[in-house]
Design a protein that fits this description.
This protein is α/β, with parallel strands linked by helices. The protein is built from nine helices and eight strands. It has a single domain, classed as TIM Barrel, CATH 3.20.20.140. Strands 1-2-3-4-5-6-7-8 form an eight-stranded parallel beta sheet. It is globular, with a radius of gyration of 18 Å.
Amino acid sequence: MKVIDTHSHLHFPDYDQDRESCLLRMQEKGIGTIVTGTTLSTSHSAITFAENHEQVWASVGYHPEHFSSSFVYKGEEDKGEYSIDSLRNLAKSSNKVIAIGETGLDFFRIDEGMQVNQAKQRQEQGFREQLRLASELDLTLIIHCRDAFLDIVRVLREEKQKKHETRTVIHCFTGNWEQAKLLLDLGCFLSFSGIITFPLKKTQDPELAVQRVIERMPMDRMLVETDAPFLAPVPHRGQKNEPSYVTYVVQEIAKIRNVSEQEIIENIRKNTKQAFRI
């Protein structure tokens, strides 16, 4: 394999009609992927899918929005309620499971009428439980962050002081350089998606753009992903994403850093092996 897309949802129903063709395109381009759980049901299906495909691994986790929102994406419906013991059992059920997540904090999705502080506390409790599970099982932690950056940093610092730490990946990082430095100081890997191929908004300060992070950060902490079926890169923006499109992310990083694609591929491959123990 040339590159591993470190975050996709290829096991979601979006691919029920074309999953095999997506896998074929991955094989042709030398692309692997980590299919990521967001509920108990999608974590279970991630394992099943990974066990049936050599170039696929699984992550099991419970997305923070499900602690505070009634929003459910197609295929995420759970028959049972969340418990950390259920996730532990899933994580220990297969050697294809290499990570816990996606977990984290998402303060964007809090149902109207729900007490905001209670919703945030419930998300944080679930985040800490999954962080500690990753530490307990020596698995990588995949973090989702939306409208909650400082709280993510605070929790990581507090848990590190308690010796609850493991290899940590910030999924779909889109922050600025000052934010990136805080996460890099905590030992995190930063994973970049097709968003980096989008043109800057006219009102955006270029100095605060994620592209500045890619220019400045150490190469040995950089990962790539698609978050498929979401966030398709240019030239497929607005369409359904797929793991093979991670090549566009690699191309954009090479362009931003003014180096060859092969250099980026070699570094990303090394980083992914270190981050996920693949």
